[in-house]
Amino acid sequence: MDQDNAFNEQVAIEDSGYGLGLKMLMGAAFGTQPRELLFSQEEAAEVLWRRFIRPLE
């Protein structure tokens, strides 16, 4: 039986002092990315897409 684990990502908007960015909250909680890393809209979309298709590869 396949025992895949799953979680829903949470994305928050943060002000870095230089501009707004998107922060992936669950990735930071699981240690898969630094807590201070902020993404643009395009970068956040790419991260989410890669996580979505990873099990299919």
Characterization of this structure:
By secondary structure, the protein is of the alpha+beta class. It has helices spanning 25-29, 41-53, and strands at residues 11-15, 20-24. The protein has a two-stranded antiparallel sheet. The chain is elongated, with a radius of gyration of 13 Å. The two termini are 19 Å apart.
Short structural description:
Helices cover 32% and strands 18% of the residues.
Element-by-element helix/strand order: EEHH
**Structural class by sheet pairing and helices:** alpha+beta
Strand content: 15-25%
The overall strand count is 2
Largest sheet: 2 strands, antiparallel
Strand order of the largest sheet: 1-2
Tell me, briefly, the overall form: elongated
Mean pLDDT: 79
First-last Cα distance: 19 Å
Helix content: 25-40%
What low-confidence regions span 5 or more consecutive residues with pLDDT below 50? none
**Structure annotation, total helices:** 2
Radius of gyration: 13 Å
